[in-house]
Write a structure and sequence with these properties.
single chain, alpha/beta, 7-stranded mixed beta sheet, 4-stranded antiparallel beta sheet, 10 helices, globular
């Protein structure tokens, strides 16, 4: 069967396989194949993998030793994995129960099944969940060598952005001062700190900040992480001219915080600005807003215009990597 696969030279195969496993992108339904010096690793989300790896469609063998939920049902269910939890999105209670039972009976290393019970809502962007299996909504997620504890019912977290977070983290150098304006449980802050950066993470969600502190301890970087529960606009003056790197991952709303970002930016600062815009002009609105906020105090150079993923029909989630030089 033809499935999306990351193609990598055999010599780099184990490192790539390990990175994809940490990002929970390997499709365990299919075998990893070697041919003519190339390794083909089946992946569940080609869009998430393609920003860093070459993705091709390839005929590979199905695994015969693993019982999947589809083997136990009359259909192939849709679900996401986050740590040892499976996340589903089903309106029909009977169908949701059948999928949960099949997931638990399969060979997947899953002990918790959660069904989405609401849309993302409120300032903290959390949603309600129905617990179909397991005790609660707390999970431990591993991503590119980092470990994150979080409660899905109390904080916002998207495993689909793992590859994007890794793309940005790879740019960080030891000794940098990095500021995440909407830090959540630390998916940017923790890998930045592991690369030797001094980090500040701010979020209005007190529970997220509690998890950020815990995750700093879990990953042995608490000496390089400062976690602050506040609206970042209230603390910007305390970090004026401080940051070498700024993360603004609040699509739809980041523009309202650009004045604070400019205040926090140091003399030479890289800004990672996330936006969601129509496909006809996905980067223009963000770039214009950044220039309006930062010029003429800063020279503004867009270093990367990067499409993270498709967000909705005709809408793209994008990132602008922008250098601000005073």
């Amino acid at each position: 069967m033809e499935v999306p696969c990351v193609r990598v030279e055999r010599e780099a195969g184990e490192a790539t396989r390990s990175a994809l496993a940490d990002a929970d992108l390997i499709d365990d339904d299919y075998e990893i194949t070697v041919e003519d010096g190339w390794l083909y690793i089946p992946v569940t989300d080609p869009d998430a993998a393609s920003s860093e790896h070459a993705v091709v469609r390839r005929t590979v063998s199905e695994r015969e030793t693993q019982t999947t939920p589809a083997d136990l049902l009359a259909f192939d269910p849709s679900y996401e994995r986050l740590g040892e939890a499976a996340l589903i999105d089903e309106d029909d209670d009977e169908r949701a129960r059948a999928i949960a039972d099949a997931i638990l009976e399969s060979d997947l290393p899953v002990g918790t099944v959660l069904n989405k019970a609401s849309k993302v809502k409120g300032e903290t962007r959390v949603r309600d969940w129905d617990v179909l299996a397991g005790e609660d909504t707390e999970v431990v997620h591993r991503e590119y060598g980092c470990e994150f504890a979080l409660d899905l019912a109390a904080v916002y977290f998207s495993p689909r952005l793992a590859t994007e977070r890794h793309r940005v983290s790879e740019q960080v150098a030891a000794g940098e001062r990095a500021f995440d304006m909407f830090a959540g449980v630390g998916p940017f802050v923790i890998p930045f700190a592991k690369r030797g950066a001094e980090c500040v993470g701010v979020d209005v969600n007190e529970t997220a900040i509690d998890y950020l502190r815990e995750n700093a301890r879990r990953n042995d970087v608490e000496d390089r992480v400062t976690a602050i529960c506040a609206d970042v606009r209230e603390v910007a003056a305390d970090y004026e001219n401080w940051a070498d790197r700024l993360v603004m991952n609040l699509p739809h709303s980041a523009g309202a915080f650009l004045e604070s970002a400019v205040a926090i930016a140091g003399d030479d600062c890289v800004l990672h600005y996330y936006d969601i815009q129509h496909e006809d002009d996905p980067f223009g609105p963000g770039e214009r807003a950044i220039r309006e906020a930062a010029e003429p105090e800063y020279d503004v150079t867009v270093e990367t215009r990067h499409t993270v993923r498709s967000y909705a029909p005709h809408e793209l989630n994008v990132c602008l990597d922008v250098r601000l030089r005073r």
